[in-house]
Amino acid sequence: MRVSIALIVFIAARGATPNMEISVLTSFIVNLVRTNEAIVFSCSDKDLLLIASAFMKNDQFFNYVHMNQRYYLPFILARNSHGRTSVIVNTRCNAAISILADASANKYFNKTYQWLLWGVGVEVKYLLPMELEYVGPNAQITYVNKTSNNYYLWDIHSKGRHLQSGLELQLIATVKNYKGDFYLNIVQDIFKLQSTEYRGQFNGITLRGASVIDKEDITTTKQIEAILSRPTKDSGVAAFIKYHYELLGLLRDRFNFSVNFRNSRGWAGRLGNTTFRLGLLGIIKRNEADIAASGAFNRINRFAEFDIIHQSWKFETAFIYRFTPDLDTHGKSGNFLAPFSKAVWILILVSLTVFSIIWVLFEIINSKLSPTNHNFKINNISEPQKYYTLKIQTKSSWAERVLQTFAALCQQGLDPIPKDHPSRFVVITIFLFSLVMYNYYTSSVVGGLLSSSDKGPATVDDITSSSLTISFEDIGYYKVLFRESKNPALTRLIKTKLSSSRSLGKISVFAHIEEAVPYIKLGGFAFHCEVVDAYPLIAELFDASEICDLREVSGLMDVEMLNWILHKNSQYTELFRVAMCSARESGFVERILRRRQIRKPTCQSFYTVYPVTLSGALAAFIVLICGIIISILMLSTELIYAYVYFKKDVELKNALSTTYVEI
């Protein structure tokens, strides 16, 4: 386990009694802050032996730095272990002011370090002037002064020196000299004085705030608060902006401060090719605002620039559209061929053809083997004519068997019933085959109807290839997304859907939710926005069946938890972070979330019947037309064949009559 660290900046007072000073130091280290390591800054070499001897007797790790020699404060104060650090400063050393200035500039007056300022003979307002801005509510500074016989240890902090807030002093303890012995009298626990409980009253101080409202002429705090305090949706204001404004209200009530807001039209961006940040993030990074009424997206490069005090808002955007039957991206809506794949249909046709051929062969074989065929004879007709007549009967039997096979497949029965056993077995097999395939077919159709909620475009690429007209909410992060994103799906979407101009009367590419929801209701339109913004208006305008038709397609922007951020190493980070943890545990955060994150309206219809579209029924019409054409061709063939056969029959009869007369 890592030991806690005590960083002690000690500036020895010229002419002061060493024993008195060492006794106060050891009392502070051993009895008050109770740390195990000390770093001492002093301008007197004589102090080294005295302080080292006293600290070692109390099992303290000791590091000594001479203030008149060259040193680098960030290197000395760099600690890998997580612990408390304290600093003792005697301002009678000339280098004391530069140490305090460096500590303020590098933000070392924080929860990691306990500072003890040895200020005997120096007023505290000269030790910590207004120019040392980083002396805030997270500072752990103890100031020591002296009367005739006693030393007084004071806790020092402010609510923000950059806001012209004064220093606040609370007495921690006294060290009394009684006949050469020193006694420590603890008035208040130093850790309680440095806690949120004692430093949670800001006494109405005004903090610098920032927010994002994508509107023109929004400049004053009154305008910003009037927009953010409204419970309804406002154009140009993201849902998470108003949510974080309500969380800011919790902090204002808890710590008793007000906020002077500054508006920004966007969240992020950079000036040209430089590292200069624009928008809300630029304001926070440059420490131009103490707190923001907004969340920020998770990015790896932002963790080194900002502190996170809270996470609770789930940012979720999607395309919202109403499903209509013509939006079937797979071309299967109402298509009677859809239950079976192409290979299955081909195999069915091949199987029926084979069955028909086998059936016809059985008919031919049975007719050949039948006893009546041996006595069959036509008088006055030659042998070629007998063969030809048999061939005509075979063709007629083949066409009839094909139609009977198709009727058996369609479960329409069979008439006449075959007499021979092989043909009967073939017919039974066809009926059994059609029964099994019919069950598979109907099961697939019913299953498709029950899973109708999966219909429609389901990905961004499906949206791109569909007939939907799309628009986006008129808010800043979409414009940044279009400009900076390298997502190929987004590139295809922009090229296909957004590159061409739109005619008058159609909704624009960037629109407000109030304008877009009626278009969603009509169908054929998809709107991309933060889903919680659209749900209240959808619940108001849509009926039960239309709500069931709603579809959402995410993937264009990541679903993530937003960070509530402050400036890196802000003097308010620890205080606000503890307060937000307490608010979450108390249920205040959950209450605001339930009110702000509206759930999707529930589908209350048992089912929705979608009409079969022309594209879905097109295959059935093609089959019907093909059947009619084939029937016409067959009729034409039969007519031509009958005409030719009748002509040959007449010629044959004439030839037979002529031959008989000559005889």
Please give the structural blueprint.
Layout (H helix, E strand, L loop, with lengths): L17 H16 L3 E6 L3 H12 L3 E6 L6 H4 L19 H10 L9 E4 L5 H4 L13 E6 L3 E8 L10 E11 L2 E6 L3 H4 L2 H4 L5 E8 L8 H8 L10 H17 L1 E8 L14 H7 L5 E2 L13 E10 L1 E6 L19 H28 L13 H27 L11 H30 L9 H6 L3 E5 L2 H9 L3 H11 L11 E2 L1 H10 L2 E6 H11 L2 H5 L1 E4 L6 E8 L5 H14 L1 H9 L17 H49 L1
Parallel strand pairs: 1-2, 3-4, 8-9, 8-10, 13-14, 13-15
Antiparallel strand pairs: 4-5, 5-6, 6-7, 11-17, 12-15, 12-16
Mean pLDDT rating: 80
Give the amount of beta strand, in percent.
15-25%
Uncertain residue ranges: 1-7, 9-20, 373-396
Distance between the termini: 134 Å
What is the spatial order of strands in the main beta sheet?
Answer: 3-4-5-6-7
Radius of gyration: 45 Å
Backbone structural class:
alpha/beta
Spatial shape: elongated
In this structure, how is the largest beta sheet organized? 5 strands, mixed
DSSP strand count:
17
* Tally of contiguous helical segments: 22
**Helicity range:** 40-55%
Could you explain the architecture of this structure?
The protein is an alpha/beta fold and 663 residues long. It is built from 22 helices and 17 strands. The protein has helices at 18-33, 46-57, 73-76, 96-105, 124-127, 190-193, 196-199, 221-228, 239-255, 279-285, 342-369, 383-409, 421-450, 460-465, 476-484, 488-498, 513-522, 531-541, 544-548, 573-586, 588-596, 614-662, and strands at residues 37-42, 61-66, 115-118, 141-146, 150-157, 168-178, 181-186, 205-212, 257-264, 291-292, 306-315, 317-322, 469-473, 510-511, 525-530, 550-553, 560-567. A five-stranded mixed β-sheet has the order 3-4-5-6-7, with helices on one face. A hairpin with a 3-residue loop joins strand 4 and strand 5 (150-157). The chain is elongated. The termini are far apart. The model is unreliable at 1-7, 9-20 and 373-396 (pLDDT under 50).
